[in-house]
Structures are given as structure tokens and as C-alpha cells.
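Q: Here's a chain of 105 amino acids. Please give me its 3D structure as C-alpha cells.
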Amino acid sequence: MRSATTAVISSADTAVRGADWGPSARFIGLAIASIAPALFWCLVVQLIAYWSGISLSPMAVGALFVTIAAFLFAICAPLMLRSSSAKDHAPRTAAPDLSSRPVSR
């Protein structure tokens, strides 16, 4: 069971790493990864403030959005936009089959 699972995970990982994503696709992914969570959390804060009876100004919500988006951009950019090293594209060796047992006579 383990060897079949490892082979599937290994081939999926190789396929994702083998895809040649251009810089524009990586930047679009980075924008989505930083803007979508910032929008979500701004909506959550706005709903909590509304339910609590507090009125937040649009400036405060905008500042929260920019802060969250900038933080996520700073964290995600080095991870998503890094250039792939040769080690990532090197073929991987198959994992040893742990279910095989030595033959005894």
C-alpha cells in the first residue's frame, strides 16, 4: 500500500515541478494568494464590527486590507517567485519497496 501511494505522490509532485510556469503566471498567483485572504479577513472584521455595534470607517478597513495584502505579498513572493534550481528538475529515484522481504531457503 505504501509503495503505490508513494509512486502516485511522487509522479504528481514531479508533474507540478516539471510545469514551466512563466513569470506572469507566477505573479498572478502571487496576487491571488495575497489579495483573496486580505479581502476575506476584511469582510470578517467588518461583520464582527457590525454585529458588535461598532462602525469602522472605510479608511480603517482599507488600511487593514493593505496591511494584510502587503504582509502576505512579502511572505509569499520569495516562495512563489524564486527561480527553480537544477535540483528541482533532476529526476527522482523511486522509493525502495518496503514490502519486499528477503528470500529465505
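Q: Can you summarize the key feature?
A: The chain is about 70% helix and 0% strand.
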